[in-house]
Design brief:
Blueprint: E1 5-11, H1 19-28, E2 35-40, H2 58-69, E3 72-76, H3 86-95, E4 108-114, H4 122-135, E5 138-139, E6 145-147, H5 150-153, H6 163-183
Bound molecules: ligand FNR.
């Protein structure tokens, strides 16, 4: 039997009807055998302030504990102004600090994203990949799950309805599980 794996899913949108939250809900229905996907909500994490690194906000301490407890990370992110949404970058920055206490280090990670445009968050995803270098994370390279034209592939509640996109998410989870087991 395959080693059980816990994945922590993090959405880069705080919006209730977010299509990217919808991707995480879909992913929870598509996990391969032996993989559990939990979600951490970034709502309420204050803006990063280096003055507070020694005594971070409780939510940041909780986030770092959840990252450390997880075997792998799955980001579902929108693209804001061709890049990573501030709430997600803010959470990434908090959990990487103080220097020498980077909770992300060594974690396998996968990215998916949806947007109403054609490119399906491609530019934000490549900016995230650049951050993973300094964070010392191990990114799944393929498949790339960039879901464009989200208005046609999700319903009004942000639920993913498109079968091809669901298949791509299933493949991404399988690749994340394989990388996680390889690195263990
Ligand atoms: C956007 N949106 C957007 N879309 C895109 O494909 N490329 C972009 O650069 C941007 N830029 C952008 C900036 C800001 C500030 C907002 C609020 C929105 C549109 C965005 O993809 C759309 O609102 C998504 O629905 C956001 O994802 P959630 O919240 O549905 O997960």
């Amino acid at each position: 039997m395959d080693t059980p794996i816990t994945v922590l899913g993090i959405c880069g949108s705080l919006r209730k009807l977010s299509v990217n939250r919808g991707l995480l809900r879909a992913a929870q229905q598509l996990t391969p055998q032996g993989v559990a996907l939990e979600v951490f909500d970034l709502l309420g994490i204050p803006p990063y302030n280096q003055d507070d690194e020694a005594q971070p906000p409780a939510l940041v301490t909780a986030l770092k504990a959840r990252i450390r407890a997880a075997d792998a990370i799955l980001f579902a992110t929108p693209e804001y102004n061709y890049s990573i949404p501030g709430v997600l970058k803010n959470a990434i920055d908090w959990a990487s600090r103080p220097y020498g206490d980077n909770a992300w280090a060594g974690k396998p990670v996968a990215i998916m994203g949806a947007s109403p445009g054609m490119l399906g968050t491609a530019r934000a995803q490549y900016h995230l990949r650049q951050c993973f270098v300094f964070l010392d994370m191990h990114a799944v390279n393929k498949p790339e799950v960039m879901i464009g034209l989200a208005g046609q592939r999700c319903d009004a509640e942000g639920n993913l309805t498109d079968d091809k996109s669901k298949q791509a998410i299933g493949n991404l989870l399988a690749a994340l599980a394989a990388l996680t087991r390889k690195l263990k």
